[in-house]
Design brief:
Structural class: alpha/beta
Helix content: 25-40%
Radius of gyration: 19 Å
Low-confidence stretches: none
Mean pLDDT: 95
Strand order of the largest sheet: 3-2-4-7-1-8-11-10-9
Largest sheet: 9 strands, mixed
Shape: globular
Number of helices: 13
Strand content: 15-25%
Length: about 375
Amino acid sequence: MSVLRGKTAVVGVGTAGIGYAPGFNSLELMAQASHEALADCGLTMADVDGLFVSSVTNAMPTVSAAEYFGIHPRHAAGTFIGGSAFVAGALDAMLALEAGLCDVALIAYGSNQRSAGGKLQVISEQQPYEKDYLPQYPLSSYALTAARHMHEYGTTREQMAAVAVAARQWAQLNPDAFRRDPLTIEDVVSAPIMAPPLGTKDCCLVTDGAAAVVMVRADRAKDMPRKPVYLLGAAAAYSHRQIAQAASLTRTAAADSGPRALAMAGLGVGDVDVVQLYDAFTINTILFLEDLGFCPKGEGGRFVENGRIAPGGALPVNTNGGGLSCVHPGMYGLFLIVEAVEQLRGQLGDRQVKGAETALIHGNGGVFSTQVTALLGTEATL
């Protein structure tokens, strides 16, 4: 168990523009979410002296955000490692706060990708070994992992579809979710194929949206208006850039980041009440459940059957509807933290997981390239 366990806490969260927000650019949406998060904990932008921002559209995201916000932070970071950047941002903010480099850390993201054109915006280097096969980036890379998992372990299209259906059932309990219409296993399986074996319903949404999180040291958190949610543990792991260099198509670096984050938190997977996973594609959820230790390798497909991760199931997973049904504005990682915090605060109404005290969040970046796991807990876990 680490000396950093519980030394920092999330005290404010905010979102803006979820779904479709025409008329706003990415910085404007990010600012809206940031002011919402600061108001949530009784602070203002003038209090922020630590800034952690990543973006798919701004080459200098932290500098651009600081200028737009009108602040001059003492400490800032803007590492771009894909959608996991914001879970990594919480880890970086924890270290910066404990080192005294800043007192109020703001982690923020915004994107208007749907209203700006409706296409997934990605930053990718040339794919030297894949380009001759005309891949769809990043879809084709995830399709390779799904196909290999089906080949090695007998995972079925219906099992992957169960992930999408569970996400939709959670979304139907979330008034802010972008997709709330009914979805069945048959709907997913019969949807047009995008890159075999993945169809349109196996793929994340393309939406607008912004999110922000405010973190402070634990001693200050006790004086904030909202119930603090403490960062108990976090760890990152990096395995490759392009899928052609992945050592395995069925084992992600979550198998490395997960155990280290749990060890820092002093927890096992059996202690986790709610799970928020980066579900850009249905295969993600299956692989992460295996690699994080919720089920043995190869058993993920069977694990998610029969509503096990859906409302009323044994393991609540992606309780806002996830990237598959709630929101996915290019990068989804910060929304994982927001949903986990609100669950642990007990403020989510119909989708609230009763008695939730611990949450595992897991961010993914690139094409299973970067994995970051974190554990959050209420004061009862300290």
